[in-house]
Amino acid sequence: MSIKRSSKVESSFSMASMTDIVFLLLIFFLVTSTLINPNALRLLLPKSNSQTPDKPRVSVSIKHLGENKFEFYVKSKRVEFNEIERSLQLELINEPDPVISIFVDKTTPTEQLVRILNIASRNNYRPILATSPE
User: Fold this and answer.
1) For the whole model, what pTM was predicted?
2) Fewer CB within 10 Å, N or C, the chain?
3) What is d(CA 100, CA 52) in angstroms, rounded to the nearest whole number?
4) Residues of the chain with pLDDT under 70
5) Which 3 state secondary structure label does DSSP give 58?
6) What domain range is 110 assigned to?
């Protein structure tokens, strides 16, 4: 007497769980990639008790006059904010690795510093924030 099976074994594989895992991984990588900011500004902060090895040719100074008034200087020459980028481009046109030094008054809001750092970032200048000795 031979025993026959009433059910057949199927040799197929369900991909439903695999697609769930791939979907979850996709979401994970999308969320973590937005945490990385590729447009961050590189800022060299020299220690105030030593010198930085880079010698900037151009300095940008921001002087806070009170209220919402500021004066901007490029190489000790007073310029309007909308002229800073052009002045820096003219000064650093032949520099292979342009470095600018930024002098900021203590009372100047950070927003003004970030505006200068954005100009440096757009033009691939390396900014150095100047500090006073301790």
Assistant:
1) 0.59
2) N
3) 12
4) 1-2, 5, 34-54, 131-134
5) strand
6) 58-129
